[in-house]
Design goal:
78 residues, mainly alpha, 2 helices, 69% helix, 0% strand, rod-shaped
Length: 78
């Protein structure tokens, strides 16, 4: 659950930063100024989110491989 929360928080921060960058760019355009940069790329944000998702999945899979299966019959033989 903690790994999910970390990944979710990172993704949320990434999307919020994109929205702030986009709003600043739109203010420049609508304010009659020449934007100093191109608009933020939505595809780039999606790629970063996919990369974050893949990294979280990789870490989760590695964590599952490290844990040993638990036996419910461990104490029954005594």
């Amino acid at each position: 659950m903690q790994a999910f929360k970390r990944t979710y928080d990172a993704a949320t921060a990434l999307v919020e930063q994109y929205n702030r960058d986009l709003a600043a760019w739109e203010r420049q355009v609508h304010g009659g100024q020449q934007p100093q940069q191109t608009p933020p790329e939505k595809e780039s944000i999606r790629k970063k989110l996919r990369d974050m998702e893949a990294e979280a999945k990789r870490r989760n899979d590695a964590r599952r491989q490290q844990t040993r299966p638990r036996s419910h019959d461990y104490d029954r033989g005594r």
